Amino acid sequence: MFTLKTFVALLPLGSAFAFAFPAAEAVEGGYGGRNAQPVFYQGHDLSSLGIMEQGGAVYHDTARHDQTRAAEDIRGDGGMNTVRLRLWVNPIPGQYDLSYVLALAKRFAKKNYRIYLDFHFSDNWADPDHNIAPAAWPTTVPALSNTLRTYVRETILTFKHAGVDLSLVSLGNEIRNGMLWPLGQVDVDITPHSALVSNFTNLATLYAAARSGVTDAVNAGAAKPQVLIHIDNGWNITLQTTCFYPFYGTDATLANLQNSLHTLARHYGKPLQVVETDWPAICSGSDAPELSEPSVPISAKGQIEWVHDVIKVVKGVPGDLGQGFNYWEPAWLNMTSLGSACQDAILFDTDWSRYPKMEAYSRESVGMLKGV
């Protein structure tokens, strides 16, 4: 069985690493370029916001008598200080490519939100079921490593030159089964141990190259971000670590998350974050999944309760190593299930009567991060 120790042990001496949770993530020592002191990153993934707006979405703040406002301003009033954005390499133009993500990052940075860049290192979604290398990239490990290092360096410097300091970066997305397949794919269950170590060699080489790209960018003048290793199933200590969703198994309990985070903190002594989670406002019907914490209500109030409970677990990590939380895609109006079997886990009610214009009205759960 794969453990994070197996992967970390293969990184060259001097390499730093990070973790992330619900997803959970581990984070390197040092703090984001914006602050010298530790900060608790509390944010939302707003990667799809630009696409929503281009498609006719308008957001209303119910706390201000349905005033039309930018979604990030509504979220900011609700306690958000960080925005997470995913980056694909060569997708369909406007689908999370560099120019699209950079425009969003500039917009949010001007409003003093910290920016968390989630490198997918793929032309499309990267996750444990498909983490495919960009089609145009090399197909040998040495050449791919060089391309990856240069890509990370140049991307971070592009943000710097646009006036955006990146506070956080994930090198790969949900990389439990590796990244940049097929060369960086791993089998977490392979035996014996010697085969497991050999199996992880390519991934460690590629991750080290990406990490060197961050160092190269910092040496060229970019602000130093925290660097995260992002792994899904934050409740499962055997795999750790990072994503923590309540829909995909009843083992995703708060107690198991606490066990994962505390174990990682004791073993590695590195900062930890839960960087993806959500909770349903609507989840009914014969296909509705059994949720991991059935005492939490399925409602906007339940969304608040879930988030407060998760943040309490994160902040309770020994040594003040629990340092961040992100809710995934709360403003994605035409993907309200957020990939789950529940109907709706976003933070807005939407009026479709004037489609293609989408009128979104904030739920009380938009204030979930205020005062936590």
Question: What are the SSEs and their pairings?
Answer:
Layout: H1 4-10, E1 19-21, E2 24-27, E3 41-45, H2 49-54, E4 57-61, E5 67-68, H3 71-77, E6 82-87, H4 98-109, E7 114-119, H5 141-161, E8 166-171, H6 193-219, E9 226-230, H7 254-268, E10 272-274, H8 300-315, E11 322-328, E12 348-351, E13 358-362
Parallel strand pairs: 3-6, 3-11, 4-13, 6-7, 7-8, 8-9, 10-11
Antiparallel strand pairs: 1-2, 2-9, 4-5, 12-13
Family: Belongs to the glycosyl hydrolase 53 family.
Catalytic activity: The enzyme specifically hydrolyzes (1->4)-beta-D-galactosidic linkages in type I arabinogalactans
GO molecular function, one term: arabinogalactan endo-1,4-beta-galactosidase activity
Account of the protein in words:
The structure is a single chain. With 372 residues, the chain is an alpha/beta fold. The chain has one domain (18-22, 38-145, 175-207, 228-367): TIM Barrel (Alpha-Beta Barrel). 30% of the residues lie in helices and 16% in strands. The protein has 8 helices and 13 strands. A 9-stranded mixed β-sheet has the order 1-2-9-8-7-6-3-11-10. 52% of the residues are buried. Mean pLDDT is 89; it is low at 5-23 and 29-36. Residues 1-18 form the signal peptide.
So what's the CATH class? Alpha Beta
Measured between the Cα atoms of the first and last residue, the distance is: 36 Å
Mean pLDDT: 89
In this structure, how is the largest beta sheet organized? 9 strands, mixed
N to C succession of SSEs: HEEEHEEHEHEHEHEHEHEEE
Secondary structure: number of strands: 13
The general outline is globular
In the sheet with the most strands, the strands line up as 1-2-9-8-7-6-3-11-10
Signal peptide: 1-18
Organism: Lophium mytilinum
Catalytic activity: The enzyme specifically hydrolyzes (1->4)-beta-D-galactosidic linkages in type I arabinogalactans
Family: Belongs to the glycosyl hydrolase 53 family.
